[in-house]
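In response to a reviewer's request, we include the raw inputs and outputs for one of the modeled complexes. The two entities were modeled together in a single run.
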Amino acid sequence: QKEVEQDPGPLSVPEGAIVSLNCTYSNSAFQYFMWYRQYSRKGPELLMYTYSSGNKEDGRFTAQVDKSSKYISLFIRDSQPSDSATYLCAMSAVNQAGTALIFGKGTTLSVSS
Amino acid sequence: DAGITQSPRHKVTETGTPVTLRCHQTENHRYMYWYRQDPGHGLRLIHYSYGVKDTDKGEVSDGYSVSRSKTEDFLLTLESATSSQTSVYFCAIRLANSYNEQFFGPGTRLTVL
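The model returned the following structure tokens for the whole complex.
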């Protein structure tokens, strides 16, 4: 079983839809969770980060962490064509410099106008 | 791109040749990372650095070496490139006093023929 599982999609939605992106993980020691957005042929861009469980909101984006279910989500409200990208979840167990981020393989999202 | 530049941005080389990729940052970050991104595998850590001349191995370090003689530069060397090292290479930095959020450069697309 991979440490982090993420449905690769593609996920296609109309403009204005609510998008739900998800990752599951197996390592109960993970406590730092991040979401990155990656446009084609660009570097990953940090969108959201959370520590431990709970919700965090930033504009149209909401990140949720459910540690009991080992499940994290990213919600995008009022999706726009500019949201079309690959979304990567990432997580780590400890906050140390040498701790690698463990990434999901990414979900490709397409928002049509 | 968090003040990170990578060079070259694209490179085609032949099996058995040495290749060096450069990551340059202008904001005096202590922690720097090299990842590779491959379809079906996502992003994986190759090596990281926690200061000048302080480096350590990541998950997929075989066939790679690194050097950091100045804070601003982190070099990744493929001593004898193989086709399995065809990939997109990303450099990242980590902010001090952070939740291990990492910020990525634009990437180098390497093809080994």
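As requested, we also summarize the result in words. DSSP finds no helices and eleven strands in chain A. The two ends of chain A are 38 Å apart (CA to CA).
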